[in-house]
Automatic annotation (TrEMBL):
This is Glucosamine inositolphosphorylceramide transferase 1 N-terminal domain-containing protein. Residues 247-470 form the Glucosamine inositolphosphorylceramide transferase 1 N-terminal domain. It comes from the Bacteria. SUPFAM superfamilies: Arabinanase/levansucrase/invertase (SSF75005). InterPro entries: GINT1_N, Glyco_hydro_beta-prop_sf, Glycosyl_Hydrlase_43_Enz. Keywords: Carbohydrate metabolism, Polysaccharide degradation, Xylan degradation. It comes from Ollibium composti. Coiled coil: none annotated. It holds the Pfam family GINT1_N. The keyword Transmembrane does not apply.
């Protein structure tokens, strides 16, 4: 493990900096803490963040909150690497990594960006401008600056941990140099930006939520011969909707070709009254008509979604998301399709939208990991196992990407002209903002490489083009899209 000097503000450091120090030590690194004088955040900005956290009833201490000074600690060995969390530490013989926030060496620049309605990117940069790591954090609640900055600072921790983990006297990643960031931290004029941009955004969201459901998804399906969405890159025509009465929504559809003349669609079934989803199924006849009512098939004390159903060793299995439980659990059909039993806990943690892929005798699992704080939609992790039941081992390059536009899977892998394509959610315009198709270019025990996603075009007759799931089983293709549904 590396010997790491972490340089923090001498007074009033932020909680994210303390969390990073603690996690580096938990990983086994020999960590020294050094102090450096740095400009504090503007008092008005801290008051605004505190106000918003009270408004949204966030009682836990936020990552942006100033905390007591982090105790200086020296180590007996010279540093292999330095992490400068102030952006202003003097040069050193050891390689020094600084983080840029929206192009500046100050974490407050991210606060200014979020208040202005921008999505700040992060970079880990050496003294000569060489970039050794990147992150494009997802912001889940863009109406609130205090909540948005939490997502950004959470990924600052993830990025820094990743950079240290990959350091071995150098970084194997392809490097690119940037011009050093210039200008201040973005504190000047912050209150004005907040008043003219953030406050109106907060008000618009409050009005929207008063009139409309926060989220209401609708599932589309069609029978199609020949090329579908994965092949053409657009939604096209011929879609039907699963009906709902407005008290539930259906999302995350996974189709299953069961028996002659009948297909099944497994869905997240979310009652607005309870706020906790179960897994249900819908039967689709050969004529495309829904047969019978929606049937609940799996309920747990926690929220369930993303019910990937697959065959293995003569049984039918389901791998739903249950991240609210802190576990990823594999289920087997005791009586298909309506009775399921938990067979194995595969992983611990807040793992979202786990998607299986089989190649060369190994099983691979692509998913997102919340990594303790922040969004569940921007940090891709990959695991490998000899079978779906495990044991699952993390890939040495985890996290594979930190990117709101491609980290979270949005359906099972599709094969087009021999090329594996992973549907990925694009959160650039917000959760459920769109879907892309990313080709898996390289996958082995040392490397995971995905191509930049090709956006799925909304052209066609589906009325809700902001989709976040795509799947197909035989002739049956399914999607979902977010709809504006008024409160009753």
């Amino acid at each position: 493990m590396a010997v790491v000097d972490v340089i923090v503000p001498a007074s009033r450091p932020r909680l994210w900096q303390r969390v990073l120090v603690e996690r580096l030590r938990a990983c086994g690194h020999d960590v020294a803490v050094l102090h450096q004088s740095a400009d504090p955040w503007p008092a008005a900005a801290l008051q605004i963040l505190r106000f918003e956290r009270r408004l949204f009833r966030r009682r836990a201490v936020g990552l942006a909150t100033p905390v007591e000074a982090i105790t200086q600690v020296q180590t007996q060995r010279p540093a292999d690497l330095r992490l400068d969390l102030t952006g202003v530490a003097p040069p050193s013989p050891a390689p020094t990594v600084r983080l840029t926030f929206d192009g500046r060496f100050s974490d407050f620049a991210a606060v200014s960006a979020v208040a202005a309605g921008r999505l700040p990117d992060l970079q880990a940069v050496l003294a000569d401008g060489t970039v050794v790591g990147r992150a494009a954090p997802m912001i889940d609640k863009r109406e609130a600056t205090a909540l948005g900055i939490e997502d950004v600072l959470a990924r600052a921790v993830t990025l820094a941990l990743s950079v240290v983990a990959r350091f071995d006297g150098g970084w194997a990643d392809e490097r690119q140099k940037i011009a050093p960031a210039t200008g201040g931290a973005g504190g000047s004029g912050f209150v004005g930006r907040y008043v003219t941009s953030a406050l109106p955004r907060l008000g618009r969201e409050a009005l929207r939520r008063a009139r409309f459901r926060h989220a209401h998804w609708r599932v589309g399906y069609r029978f199609i011969d020949g090329p579908g969405v994965a092949e053409t890159g657009m939604l096209g025509d011929g879609w039907r909707q699963l009906p709902d009465d407005g008290t539930h929504f259906y999302a995350d559809p996974f189709p299953y070709a069961w028996r002659q003349g009948e297909h099944l669609i497994f869905v997240e079934d979310y009652p607005h009254a309870t706020g906790k989803a179960i897994i249900s199924l819908v039967r689709i006849g050969a004529d495309g008509a829904v047969r019978g009512p929606v049937e609940p098939v799996l309920e747990e004390p926690f929220h369930l979604s993303y019910p990937q159903v697959f065959d293995w060793q003569g049984d039918v299995w389901m791998l739903p998301e249950g991240s609210a439980s802190g576990r990823l659990t594999l289920y087997r059909a005791a009586r298909f399709p309506d009775r399921w039993v938990a067979e194995a806990v595969l992983l611990e943690g807040k793992i979202s939208d786990a998607t299986l892929f089989q190649q060369d005798g190994s099983w691979w699992l692509f998913a997102t990991d919340r990594d303790g704080y922040g969004s569940t939609s921007d940090t891709m992790v990959v695991f490998r196992a000899p079978s779906p039941a495990g044991p699952w081992r993390p890939h040495r390059m985890n996290p594979i990407v930190i990117d709101r536009a491609m980290a979270r899977p949005g359906g099972a892998f599709a094969t087009v002209d021999g090329r594996p394509l992973l549907p990925v959610q694009d959160g650039t315009e917000g959760y459920g903002g769109g879907l892309g198709l990313s080709e898996l270019l390289e996958l082995d025990e040392n490397t995971v490489r995905l191509a930049p996603p090709r956006p799925v075009s909304g052209r066609g007759d589906w009325p809700y083009p902001r989709i976040h799931t795509l799947n197909r089983a035989g002739r049956l293709e399914v999607i979902d899209g977010i709809a504006a549904v008024r409160r009753r």
